[in-house]
User: Fold this.
Amino acid sequence: MEGHAKGLGNGRAPDPPDEREQARRGEPRIVDKPWGREVWYAHTDRYAGKVLEVDAGHILSLQKHVVKHETMLLQAGRVRFTLNDEVFEWLPGEIVSIPPGNVHRMEALEDSVILEVSTPELDDLVRLEDRYGRVR
Assistant:
């Protein structure tokens, strides 16, 4: 019980500060896009987290990733989602998981907010079509 009183549930001393990554706080990175914006709230060597704010009537690139694996939750709005050969209406509370190699696109039918978590390869993007002229 003595360890619990000190906040050391396992009975051993915590790691010295120089042996563990320090906690931090800060501001998200805002990335403006022709369709709205991304709010990057996490980007480490193991994972990334973003909020995509997509304006009604706008559409993201038809794209795929070589390595990046992403999972998205539609928090608000309505989206026409293309995933390979399937097109469906994506509704709030639904999740879409996209392993590498899957072709996908999102079109906001209403102002929409999408939560995305992924592997950290944020530059891994193969644009196949793009309304805004960004295909390379």
Notes: The domain at 28-129 is CATH 2.60.120.10 (Jelly Rolls). The chain has one helix and eleven strands. Residues 2-5 form the longest helix (4 residues). The first strand starts at residue 29 and ends at 33.
